[in-house]
Amino acid sequence: MTATSAIQWRSFTLYKDGNAPDEYEDALAGNPASGRFAVADGASESSFAALWAKLLVEGFIAARGRTTLNWLLPLQKRWAEAVDHLELDWFGEEKREQGAFATFLGLVVQKAQADQGRWRAVAVGDCCLFQVRKDTLLASFPVQRSTDFGNRPPLLCSRAVAGKDSLAKAKRAVGKWEKGDRFFLMTDALAEWFLQRHEQQRRPWESLQRRLTDANGSLTAYIEQLRSQKEMKNDDVTLLTIGL
Q: Which option is the CATH number for 2-243: 3.90.1720.10, 3.40.630.30, 3.60.40.10, 1.10.3430.10?
């Protein structure tokens, strides 16, 4: 956990069941001093997706100003510099030329007064942001219903030519926060489960927050149980919570 006087944040990651830890292809980053946070989900079918997801979240945290994606081009250059010189077989070279793909969500929390302010978010794909106030789900972005998740979400590409189309698919949201609000940023498998539970008139934020603060690591066991019971898809899980 990292904390300042105004913002406290925690994070959790878990790789896909059956995979090794180094096959985890999500990423997260946060900077409470600037109020910038991000999560990304690398597409397993693409080449060097984990690196691309990591570059995306780190690039957003380092950027300044609004939630535009004008910081994307330097990241595409960094990705190419890291992988284009590697020797691969013909199939690997073909995949590399197509580029890496990832979904992405970035959040900027802005302070107006001591106990309130505004927030801005940008998303491409189905990484999600949930805002909870007084035990009520106040905002769900960019997905509002669990049935809206699919197998082909919009993606950001590490190749500049393909990346131009990705920018047109970016969605943005703005809102206000008050003291005591909590934000949950997460990748798609956890987000779909979160909305399903909410639609069942349950409070998934309570289950996550309670286990996230448990020093015994009960959130890992909980997610493994949900996977085994087919209540959550078997995919990488990334969670970032922000308390104000």
A: 3.60.40.10
**Model confidence pLDDT, tens digit, residues 159-204:** 876 555 666 789 999 999 999 999 999 999 999 999 999 999 999 9
84 alpha carbon, distance to own chain's centre: 26
DSSP letter (8 states) at residue 46 = S
pLDDT at 238 over 60: yes
d(CA 151, CA 168): 19
Please check whether residue 146 is in contact with residue 209, taking contact to mean a CB–CB distance below 8 angstroms: no
Tell me the β-bridge partners of 201: none
Quick one: three-class SS letters along 29-43? EEECCCCEEEEEEEC
Which residue is it, tokens 């190749």? 159
What is the helix (H) or strand (E) element at residue 152, kind and residue range?
A: none
Residue spans per domain, the chain: 2-243
3-state secondary structure of 64: coil
